[in-house]
Amino acid sequence: MNEEIQRKVRVLQQLSIAAYPDAMLVYLCGMLMGAVHRVHFVRDLEGAPIAIQIAMGRARVWPTPPWQATVGGMTIPDPLTLASALAQRDDPICVKLLFDGSSEHEDFQQCLVNSYADVVAGRTAGVQRAEDRMAELRARIDRALDIYNECRRLMEDGDPARRDELAAFQRMAQEELQACTRELRRLEMQVASSKD
Fold it and tell me: Which of 61, 106, 127, 129 is 20 to 30 A away from residue 112, measured at CA?
């Protein structure tokens, strides 16, 4: 069982414990654990062929039911009917979870993707985090290049007394450039391999 699946199972276990004594919600969590390889936690359910929203605690606003589900655009009335519908389809199961502390829940955040479109494109939560980190690294590389080039320009035009200071800043920028470039290449290879 890979790490992402383990995280999803932990989230669903904790959710089922919090769902007690709502037997139908506990059943729903158990059913999702049984199909955990198809479950994807999403921020937006738009376009998902199988969409389930679960709201618990203060995140649930009355009169919203604790869970809602649609399969192929059709509203499902209970978890038993949902189980039957899931057994007849192979589509990914997109689950939008609303619960207290969700923004701080590490396992949940590590599995969360934006939408069904990301699921279809194979952009798992890990890939999205890697892409965000790659964007951050590119920005750091741009800043380091700017510093490096500015130091070089000042060394050519500037005061000889500041030459040592500027050379030190230039070395720091070069080290930052090298470190960021190495990490960027590693992440690019990781993302490329996950999409294959």
Answer: 61
